[in-house]
């Protein structure tokens, strides 16, 4: 079932058309990577999902309910983590979550149990009674996730949750998102493709106001079938002979006695190469089939 559906979404700011015709859907219990360059319109799309922005056309549904600007009924289903979450920094995480629970009319007992459960989930138990003012960016981001999950949202929207973090902080956040996937559905915007490759089940790429690709990471690989084989020799001795033997293939010489072979049937080529090496008693340092990457796809669709 789709938790979120966006159809023909349009939004301009004055003369600038940011979203021309955006449509995509997000399936339940997935981590969905919403990818786009700086200024592509990711935050604009997220604000539209939260009903915080008057859109110029199209429609958005969350849990099959239509989103209307100014009427935020559907936000009961949504948890939101902004790129830079703001807190009352004189409070402790427990006090802050308690305040959030009170504002949203949670039962007192539920606030306490849920807050403790979430603080443990995001790895802040040792800091539960320390002031937020002393927290690092990564810790604030983790507390932001706890806050966004307080009301058991069906959809967790994270706007660039890892962009300002170092590699360890980014890994912590991605691990937490993976842990909560069973309980909710996550859409996160980013321009960090390696983060997407690490955790996302599905992606959509926003470029020039439109979705230029939506699919799973398997779809990305299918769209970019494996077509390169990289061979690294120990020295230069065998390279000329190799290139003559395989003159029917497209071979690109690289640095450090390395060759890249492009071929439509890379697996047959790989067998031929191994056969040649074996027959001629040549040892290669490395023979690698190059995997397609999200970066290849991204560069192709946004160029
Ligand atoms: N309230 C606004 N008024 C005028 N222009 C706006 C407004 N909000 C966004 N924009 C413009 O819309 C474009 C898209 O902005 P948006 O913040 O949605 O991009 P983004 O993909 O989230 O970028 P980033 O990765 O840098 O956060 C930008 O050119 C921005 O300047």
UniProtKB/TrEMBL annotation:
A GO molecular function held by the record: ATP binding
SUPFAM superfamilies attached to this UniProt entry: P-loop containing nucleoside triphosphate hydrolases
PROSITE patterns: ABC_TRANSPORTER_2 (PS50893)
Keywords assigned: ATP-binding, Nucleotide-binding, Transport
Keyword Nucleotide-binding: yes
Keyword Cell membrane: no
Protein name: ABC superfamily ATP binding cassette transporter
Organism whose genome encodes this protein: Coprobacillus cateniformis
Taxonomic classification: Bacteria, Bacillati, Bacillota, Erysipelotrichia, Erysipelotrichales
